[in-house]
Amino acid sequence: MFEAPSIGDLNIAATLPATLLALGACIFLLVDLFVPKDRKYITALLAAAGLLTSLVLALLSLMNIIEFGSGETAFAGLYIADQFTDVVNVVVLFTGLMGVLVAYNYLDRIGKQRGEYYYLLLFTTVGVMFMGSAGDLVTVFVALELLSIPLYILSGFRWPQEQSEESALKYFILGAFSSGFLVYGIAMIYGATGTTEFRGIWLAVDEIIAQDLSSKYLLLLGAGLTLVGLGFKVAAVPFHMWTPDVYQGAPTSVVAYMSVAAKVGGFAALVRVFASGMSNFVLDGATAAAWQDTMWLIAALTMILGNLVAIVQTDLKRLFAYSSIAHAGYILTAVAAAGSAAVTNEAAQAVAIYLAAYAFTNIGVFAVIISVEKDDSSNTGLDSLRGMSRTQPLLAASMTLFMFSLTGIPLTAGFVGKWFVFKSAIAADLFPVAVIGVLTSLVSAYYYLRIVWLMYFEEGEPQVYIPWPLASAISLAVVGTLLLGIFPYLLQEMAQDIVLAFGR
Amino acid sequence: MDITIESLVFLIFGALTLGAGVLVVTSRNLFHSGLYLMMSLFGVAGLFVLLAAPLLAGFQVVVYIGAIAILIIVAIMLTPGLTQIKTLFNEQWMVNLAAAVIVFLVLVSVITPLMDDVGVDNWNADFTEDHPKAVAADSMTTLGEQLVDPDYFMLPFEVASVLLMAAMIGAVLLVNPGQAEDESVVPPEGEEV
Amino acid sequence: MVPLWMYLVVAAALFCVGMFGVLSRRNAIAILMSIELMLNAVNINLVAFWRYQAPERLNGQAFAAFVFAVAAAETAVGLALIISLYRRRKSVVADDANLMKW
């Protein structure tokens, strides 16, 4: 018979930041019904408070001040509460907080100040958190959908504007299509290993390799299809086609959030599935996991295509869509490096560091784009920044800092991220990819620094609109970018306890 | 494989699933596509029964056919004028067909022993398994319990419940009948231009 | 019993039919139906693997149940998007929405 287990066994406390936020979102949903239409700042504040509470809890857990619960797993291994979880939680909760800050006035301006925005954003955040902490492919899949479905809706939040609705439909169809691949891949992995738990998969893979079972082909197929599915989510070439159109059509505040959050979720899942679950999938005679070659090839393609196509873009949102594709390539380099057994943990740390650095900078960039965007979502061309240094010196300086960070110039967060990524790639003997990464970074300097040039050396009268929440979001991004850039020690300290592999 | 009752039933349901599936994709009339989808889903339910998963077969009929497919058909009826489509496929359909066939061959080369004859060395003894272990008689009860058992699938179960709620909110938000009036009565601020 | 690979072939074929439908159909509702076919192919796989590889644990069946839930959520949101687009455009042809513009 079914017996209710005692709560102590479940270790629910370990999942506190995520479950608290999920609970909060459900409560805000009800509270919002009683918030009058012209006072939606109450919902925004509640959402921000909820995110902040979880952020503080996650930070405490990250710095090992408080350990929630006991041990690393909860819910019988379906939730993993390790250092990687903590980093993912902190990054995505911070992103969510910034997402609320940049959205509030923007929603007012586009006449869409609705409570739904905030709690859908909270649901997405919860999805990312469960993805980063998943200990089982079932959780990965369900959490991925919890991450994606609210994002589809948020992309279409600007109905009846056609662009926004079209981008939502496009995002939805390609997203659902890619989850079909993901879940087919998961089914194959399940077929090969007989389990969906990462630990079980790890053990089963060991056995498959040791006995050279023919189910390794099935596993290979499963890994490939899973990579396709997750590649869509993180916008890796050749699965990137949705990115520019969706980024251009969706409300900019949503893009600011999703350009980071969807990537954090996708990469967290990639790290969990590949670097953790299948790190020992080494076919005969090879030195690295079987998926490494494909992964670095995709990483190289992503870096090259993202950066080259970004050069010719004239719309800021499209340009940064391609830029975000390029950055997915850099992170994938680190994921590929994780395929070499000796580098797995170092590479996972690099992924976490890069995601943190990227989160600060990229949200900042989109906050600046929001400030120049007109209410009818026009004026996001490159020209809108022309001559900004004269009218808005501070904003121009912030944007310059973000551009430096995205290029990877020292003393910015972006440099630290790239440093660790390329270091892990070299440690994994992936010199060609590291070289491609450095070269494409040089290429990217062209279009990033062209923006700086436009702001400082060309004439123009940009109109900006910066209410205080947006200003504080930009300041937070500036502080974060500088802080992490000048004291890389902070990031390193945070990430150094990330240990992924099972059984070692 | 001897021709037994079971293999006959398998062939019937497999053919139903695939045949109706092909018709879903190739029907010009969208409404017919919807009905074929139901048939295909029904075929899948039959396969579930053969695979000793009666609970899922029930889910398939009640949830998939009874709710999801019906929802799709209602949506088709809500979008009149679209049921007869002049151009069925987009221009690259031949490329896509080739791609689908290639993917199918790749999948088949991994999962079937047939490819052994072609010289692909991946015969997997497991796949030819004719006599798998028996399923415990109470597997239906066990599945129901495990879905809400914290030692098994409670976490994804709860996440899925949140997911369904988020989807419901989103769907209501997007098709909210009040929204059209909203837009006309209260013009969005800052659109003086 | 019918060998496992036969189920897998049916599933693979159904998956590819669905894939072709998603890539080629111009109507968004037809694309959605094709996605349903893909998810059903996955379910056949999951249950078949469960039956033949690991019948003593119920992971495969439970996963299939979660696929149902996700399919329901996706359909609800997808149809809402399609209907809300249709109301304004009187068209849900994916090409018109520039959907397949890679």
Nutshell version of this structure?
The complex is a heterotrimer of chains A (about 500), B (about 190) and C (about 100). With about 500 residues, chain A is mostly helical. Chain A has helices spanning about 5-10, 15-30, 40-60, 85-110, 115-130, 135-155, 160-195, 200-210, 215-235, 240-250, 250-275, 290-310, 315-335, 345-370, 390, 395-405, 415-425, 430-455, 470-485, 490-495, and strands spanning about 75, 80.
Biggest chain pair contact, residues each? Answer: B-C, 92 and 73 residues
Average pLDDT number of chain A: 89
Strand order of the largest sheet of chain A: 1-2
**What is the residue-averaged pLDDT of chain C?**
86
Query: Low-confidence spans of chain C: pLDDT under 50, at least 5 residues?
Result: 97-102
Strand-residue proportion of chain C? under 5%
Radius of gyration based on Cα positions of chain C:
17 Å
- Class by SSE composition of chain A: mainly alpha
Word description of this protein:
The complex is a heterotrimer of chains A (504), B (193) and C (102). Chain A is mainly alpha-helical. Chain A is built from 20 helices and two strands. Chain A has one domain (11-495). Chain A is globular and about 70 Å long. With 193 residues, chain B is an all-alpha fold. Chain B folds into three domains: 1-85, NADH-ubiquinone/plastoquinone oxidoreductase chain 6, subunit NuoJ (Four Helix Bundle (Hemerythrin (Met), subunit A), Up-down Bundle); 97-135, no CATH class; 136-182. Helix content of chain B is 65%, strand content 0%. Chain B has seven helices and no strands. Chain B is globular. Chain C has a single domain, classed as Helix Hairpins (Orthogonal Bundle). Chain C has helices at residues 4-24, 28-53, 59-89. The model of chain C is unreliable at 97-102 (pLDDT under 50). Chains in contact: A-B, A-C, B-C. Chains B and C meet through helix 1, helix 2, helix 3, helix 4 and helix 5 of B and helix 1, helix 2 and helix 3 of C.
